[in-house]
Amino acid sequence: MEDLAFYMHAGSGNHGCEAIVESLAGMLKGQRFTLMTNSRQEDLSYFPENVKKQADIIEEKHMNDHFLTHAAYYAYRKATGDQESFLRYRYSPLTKEKPRLAVSIGGDNYCYPEMVGDLMLANSMFQRQGTRTMLLGCSIEPELLKKDAKIREDLARYDRILARESITYEALVHCGIPKEKVRLVPDPAFCLPKSEDRLPADFKSGNTVGINLSPMALDYATDREAAFNGYVQLIRHILEKTDMDVALIPHVVWERSCDLVPLRKLATVFSDEKRVRLIDDMPAQDLKGIIANCAFFVGARTHATIAAYSSLVPTLVIGYSVKARGIAKDLFRGGESFVLPVQAIRDPSQVIEAFDHLMACEDAIHFDLAGAIPLFMNRARENGEEILSLLKD
């Protein structure tokens, strides 16, 4: 067991999760680490060889796969009130060997109510056993911090919190988290390398609009049909008003939340149109290589949009949480940031209007990103520096 462990890694079928691990591995200068993962097979399928050599990849224990174990732990927790017992089983390699530092790399999980309980219990469990903890890539809705004292108490336990955008950073400090524990550090995936090895030979580089849509974004939509039809009308608009191609690009391919489901539905609508193509699933660096060759990008998944931003591609974010607002606000220094909340889409024409405005501002966006991204990448490397500093402290 290594001194450094990453946990709350949901698996590389979410290429944003993959991108975080690969980017951190590159920042850690050969430092070995243990990666607790929800799916070792996914990681082995997608990680490049250098990351596989640097990481000891261990799959979490899945209690639901073992009925007798689940029943025994449930009875024990019921009898003793020991709420951490499930987490000790799930992360048993880390509770037996006790690394010096455990880093939660699912920092945006506090945005999802169903995840918060496990996050709090894991933090408490590691702290109780003498392992220091860090929350990395953190995004949290300010209103949640205001109304939930238990979450504030939990966050104060971390030895270090790296907020990836200023809305979360300011909310953490404002709600009383000790300022010396909190850093404002961009998402490590801004530093993800790109690969063009799988760029299709006939891809129209610089004359293609990349499109990403996720089931999660549609779930957050006030009017799901209007949001989906907004994408349909946007693609039709691009085909009629420009000579650009359209590439439908997945970024999460889990069975439980697969971008290919809505993207295949879009592909079916335009099945007779040769200028619309569906991109195959592939590792994060290859997906970034394809996104980097787009003229414009419209995306729902946070790390798909980070791949676009960091490649200087003008991007319209179909956002649903503080993640989208905060990252865009910081990149564009509080100016116009081209985020359309999916909850606000009530008419498909809103998506077309937002995209046309993006195109009209193309030169200004290139200028802003060309100035901001090198600075963001330099600051994003502080994720690795903060980990190494806390590990050696």
What's the helix and strand layout?
Elements (H helix, E strand, L loop, with lengths): L3 E6 L5 H13 L5 E5 L2 H7 L2 H6 E5 L7 H14 L4 H6 L1 H6 L3 E4 L8 H16 L3 E7 L3 H6 L1 H9 L2 E4 L2 H9 L7 E3 L23 E4 L3 H6 L3 H18 L3 E4 L4 E2 L2 E2 L1 H10 L6 E3 L5 H9 L3 E4 L2 H8 L5 E3 L4 H10 L17 H12 L1 H19 L1 H11 L1
Parallel strand pairs: 1-2, 1-4, 2-3, 4-5, 5-6, 6-7, 8-9, 8-13, 9-12, 13-14
Antiparallel strand pairs: 10-11
Helix pairs in contact: 7-9, 12-17
Folded structure, characterized:
- With 393 residues, the chain is of the alpha/beta class.
- The chain has helices spanning 15-27, 40-46, 49-54, 67-80, 85-90, 92-97, 113-128, 142-147, 149-157, 166-174, 215-220, 224-241, 260-269, 284-292, 302-309, 322-331, 349-360, 362-380, 382-392, and strands at residues 4-9, 33-37, 55-59, 101-104, 132-138, 160-163, 182-184, 208-211, 245-248, 253-254, 257-258, 276-278, 296-299, 315-317.
- Strands 3-2-1-4-5-6-7 form a seven-stranded parallel β-sheet, sandwiched between helices.
- The two termini are 19 Å apart.
- The mean pLDDT is 93.
Fraction of residues in H or I helices: 40-55%
Shape: globular
Overall mean confidence score, pLDDT: 93
Q: In which order are the strands of the major sheet placed? A: 3-2-1-4-5-6-7
Quaternary organisation of the protein chains: single chain
Beta-strand percentage range: 5-15%
Q: How many DSSP-defined strands?
A: 14
Number of helices: 19
Whole-angstrom Rg: 21 Å
Alpha-carbon distance between the two ends: 19 Å
Unreliable segments of 5+ consecutive residues: none
Structural class: alpha/beta
Largest sheet: 7 strands, parallel
